[in-house]
Specification:
Length: 203
Amino acid sequence: MMKKIILMFVIFLISFSPAFAVPNNESATNNGNQYGTLTAVSTGAYTSLNGQEMSIEQIQNRNRLRVGEYFAEYSLELQEERSLTGESKLKATLSNGQNAEIKVMPDVAAERALERLKLKVCQEEEGCTIELKEVGQGDQIQPVYEVQARKEARMLGMFKTQMQVRAQVNAETGEVIRVQKPWWAFLASESDEIEEDESATLE
């Protein structure tokens, strides 16, 4: 009699075990990895996957993503996906409904943009700004950092002026995807060229 009861109990467990396994599988599928669900970012400090400190700020109703001395203003919807060990992935919800991971931080984006624009620093008081935004249409929409700055120039090698320049850096790959200068830039010597000319004159 006891053997029959044990046998029936084992059969019962085997029969119903798949039903209990389904929620676990669904949970694993939803989580995908060791990270939790996406949640909206709030002001405060975060740690990136490589251990870099970053922060979300709100100043005069403007949202900023800051790393060190560099910050990017943004109007995108940013979300955080935090690992079990406390590191965070930042993702932007784009207008086409897709989520894009912000792998590149403002300091790296600024460095690469300044290199292409042949500028040394990006200072807000001198008119340099960094904005995290989306560009493109449809499936081609992507998050970028747009760096805008004023640059010293000399028209026709004689008249000093300033030109507005900008560069866009892909926030997922770090690639500089676009550089813009005024149409008359080909007629002007830019600040780095001016410095070289003046140095040569002094010698």
